[in-house]
Amino acid sequence: METRKVQVTGGSTYTVSIPKSWATENDVGAGTEVEFYPDGDSLFLTPRSEEERTRGSLEITDLTGQDLTRAVTTMYVSGFDVIELTGGEITTEQRSTVREAVQSLVGLEVLEETRDRVVVRDLLDSSELSIHNAVTRMRLISLSMLQDAITALSELDHDLARDVIGRDDDLDRLWLVVSRIFRATLRTPKAAEELGLPREECFDYHSSARQLERIGDHATKIAHLTLNIEEPLPEDVIDAIDDLHGDAVEVVDTAMDALFAEDNDEATRLANEARTGVRAIDERVRAIDELLRGLDPTRAQLLGLVVDSVLRSADYGGNVAETALQKAAPTP
């Protein structure tokens, strides 16, 4: 760490020198324009870049299938606006995998294809992205998936169960968008300024979005379990699971309301209410376990997995409540 003294020039202008080593590493010299970004009691300085798009290159000669999909997804989440995929000769299978990966990511399109290169570009304007809107959408999708998964179970509606499974892709796409936005705010203060949110708040949204993505995974798990059930389930067990689901949704909704609350006192009240709800759910789970003991082992095990997924969804709501409490806490 280096320190500098602030000086006054011309009677009204504050000036401070910058470390020569940093200036050299970042090609800053006489005449270079720099940008300042205030963030609370801090002031970030960065060289002004003429390049509006961040380009990244990836050698994919030895990548196929899921490895190639993950590589493209990683480049996207890392924040590259233009992704150049190169290889000695890109195969038809690789091209197909790239197209599928691109279609699963918001804003990406294939811009150019040659024998040894595929160029992918993000067409979204970063200034139009909203992490708040993305998380709000994730909240709606994840809870509707959980609701429909429980309905599919109670009515043995296999078509509805398959629909729940299909919606998980929409939730995953939004999760990757949130991750991309969050990583951008870590990389450059300009991204946080364009969002109009402090970076700590972006972290809170990112952390909560992860919990919502996991709720969607458990709704998908319940839907898959439903596809293995052919005979109607006992009404008392279904009613108990439905009540458990209602309590779990209340926890998640209350926690999300706490996260979005602008008043810190209100956020704290709601977050503590959600945490209390999680503890109350444990009692309901124990009552359901007693009901399951009267069923044959195979069916009891399957329904036990359903109960566990609903319980975990409530726990994820409790995690969001913890994040909301931290967000509402006084800033050091």
Automatic annotation (TrEMBL):
InterPro entries: PhoU, PhoU-like_sf, PhoU_dom, SpoVT-AbrB_dom. Residues 8-53 form the SpoVT-AbrB domain. Pfam families: MazE_antitoxin, PhoU. GO terms for molecular function: DNA binding. GO terms for biological process: intracellular phosphate ion homeostasis; negative regulation of phosphate metabolic process. PANTHER family: PHOSPHATE REGULATORY PROTEIN-LIKE PROTEIN, PHOSPHATE-SPECIFIC TRANSPORT SYSTEM ACCESSORY PROTEIN PHOU. This is Phosphate uptake regulator. It comes from Halorubrum cibi.
